[in-house]
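Budget justification aside, the reviewers requested a transparent look at the raw inputs and outputs of the sequence design task funded under Objective 1. We therefore reproduce one unedited record. The lines immediately below are the structure tokens for a 560-residue chain.
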């Protein structure tokens, strides 16, 4: 091999190195880019009478600085971080709503009982009665406004779930396209890695993992992707898109569905349990809805039920200014019942509140097994009641005695307190109808109403005022104020826990990112030094060609 070929080989390698260094510099700020370098080796040597003489250098491949372990660590930490950030964004809104105790429900409860105390002190005072109705309506408004905010959050979550699933499907399609491009590139240049295509695919997988936690399996230069408990999203040449549909058990909430082949060229949608979808934005949204939003709204509803039933029980024993016995002071809807899809019977069991003190703010399922109706608690699946008549549990009664025609597998979801706060209302609009008087006067004589001047006593109003501190919820553990304080504290604890976890996760993400970048990131100073080195190599190799040309000219001149 002559000097000219040696120079040519050196120039080609130096040129590849210069181009790769330039590529690194241009992509130093490109998300997901892994630094590349030219792998070279000696071109070997040829045997001569003087021994083995080298043939120069040759470029073998262009490799990216990539470590699958570091990449996986960073992706997993970002998945968890995205879930915590999304959860935090949602829970902080609820916390901001409830945390200010100078406005909202807490002062409204206090004002309501102050109004009750004023009526107890002056039962015949029409102004005090009117003020009480106004304060009762204000309390109802505050409770309903808080519930409306939670309903709005629920609607927003539905919208965000739909948006994130659309993003998942879009990314899956792009990953599949890159799978094909990589396969084509490998076929065109066997043994040579299409580094930029690998980077683009890895970046898409990283973006996908920030939306939902996925598992990645690489086979024959293709990535296969599963979610939840192993449901395939991308396998081989097929993409199985996620879908969003109203939940079969609760149409008010959107659920994520995956697709399975139905054997006749189509697919069937199967609902995924929210608890199976973890990590990323989608996992954070569903975790917040399940762990915080549902429980807070149920707790708020339990407060509304406790307020209405406790007040109505006492008010119903009193007498108003006309001498009539009191009716309900607050109006409240019956517990919410959601009929299961495909039920054979077109009716629902009758459900009613019996004892607010025993309410747990839980949801329940009623199912028919062909012989009996079974009540289970949604949160843990515990069986609470079995029978065919009136089933009693947790302060509720479920009457299934009229459910003729039910078939095995029929079911209903009972959300006793979910919509209770929304249904709460003041049942009276006439101050004179407030039943503040007891059945007897203070002298033991049956109370006689004195129309225009008020009833003879305010005993019922005094009982009513005592509700402010009486333990009417939580099996005798909480007053109405304490029940609301528990809601506020629960949200505060969840917010603080998430904030602490989020800060720790951000530190972990930064550590993993630094470790990954130490290997794969582009160091501009290093690349500038490489440019100078490769430039000198190019010049030196070019000089070999100059020398070869000079020697050749010398030989030609000798012949002349």
């Amino acid at each position: 091999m002559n000097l000219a070929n040696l120079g040519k080989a050196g120039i080609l390698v130096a040129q590849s190195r210069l181009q790769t260094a330039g590529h690194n510099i241009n992509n130093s700020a490109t998300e997901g880019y892994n630094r590349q370098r030219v792998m070279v080796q000696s071109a070997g040597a040829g045997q001569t009478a003087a021994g083995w003489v080298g043939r120069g250098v040759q470029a073998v491949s262009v490799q990216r600085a990539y470590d699958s372990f570091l990449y996986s660590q960073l992706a997993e930490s970002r998945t968890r971080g995205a879930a915590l950030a999304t959860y935090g964004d949602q829970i902080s809104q609820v916390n901001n709503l409830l945390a200010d105790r100078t406005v909202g429900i807490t002062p409204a409860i206090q004002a309501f009982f102050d109004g009750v105390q004023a009526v107890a002190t002056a039962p015949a005072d029409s102004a005090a009665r009117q003020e009480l109705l106004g304060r009762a309506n204000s309390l109802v408004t505050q409770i309903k406004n808080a519930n409306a905010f939670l309903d709005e959050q629920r609607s927003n979550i539905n919208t965000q779930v739909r948006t994130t699933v659309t993003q998942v499907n879009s990314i899956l399609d792009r990953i599949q396209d890159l799978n094909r491009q990589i396969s084509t590139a490998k076929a065109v240049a066997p043994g040579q890695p299409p580094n930029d295509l690998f980077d683009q695919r890895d970046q898409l997988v990283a973006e996908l993992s920030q939306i939902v936690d996925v598992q990645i399996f690489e086979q024959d230069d293709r990535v296969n992707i599963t979610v939840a408990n192993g449901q395939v999203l991308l396998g081989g040449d097929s993409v199985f898109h996620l879908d969003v549909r109203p939940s079969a058990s609760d149409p008010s909430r959107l659920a994520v569905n995956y697709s399975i082949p139905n054997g006749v060229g189509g697919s069937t949608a199967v609902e995924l349990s929210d608890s199976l979808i973890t990590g990323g934005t989608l996992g954070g949204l569903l975790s917040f809805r399940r762990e915080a939003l549902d429980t807070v709204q149920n707790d708020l509803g339990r407060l509304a039920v406790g307020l209405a039933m406790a007040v109505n029980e006492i008010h119903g024993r009193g007498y108003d200014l006309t001498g009539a016995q009191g009716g309900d002071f607050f109006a409240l809807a019956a517990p919410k019942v959601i009929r299961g899809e495909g039920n054979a019977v077109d009716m629902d069991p009758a459900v009613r509140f019996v004892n607010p003190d025993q309410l747990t703010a839980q949801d329940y399922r009623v199912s028919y097994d062909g012989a009996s109706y079974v009540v289970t608690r949604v949160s843990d699946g515990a069986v609470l009641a079995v029978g065919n008549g009136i089933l009693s549990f947790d302060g509720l009664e479920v009457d299934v005695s009229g459910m003729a025609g039910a078939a095995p597998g029929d079911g209903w979801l009972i959300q006793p307190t979910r919509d209770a706060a929304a249904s709460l209302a003041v049942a009276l609009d006439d101050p004179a109808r407030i039943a503040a008087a007891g059945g007897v006067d203070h002298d033991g004589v049956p109370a006689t109403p004195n129309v225009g001047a008020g009833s003879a006593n305010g005993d019922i109003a005094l009982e009513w005022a005592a509700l402010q501190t009486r333990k009417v919820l939580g099996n005798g553990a909480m007053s109405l104020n304490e029940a609301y304080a528990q809601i506020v504290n629960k949200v505060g604890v969840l917010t603080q826990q998430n904030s602490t976890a989020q800060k720790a996760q951000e530190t972990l993400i930064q550590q993993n990112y630094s470790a990954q970048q130490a290997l794969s990131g582009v160091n501009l100073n290093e690349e500038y030094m490489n440019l100078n080195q490769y430039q000198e190599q190019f010049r030196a190799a070019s000089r070999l060609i100059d020398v070869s040309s000079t020697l050749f000219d010398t030989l030609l001149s000798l012949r002349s």
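The first strand starts at residue 36 and ends at 42. Residues 3-65+521-559 form one domain. Computational costs for records of this kind are itemized in the attached budget.
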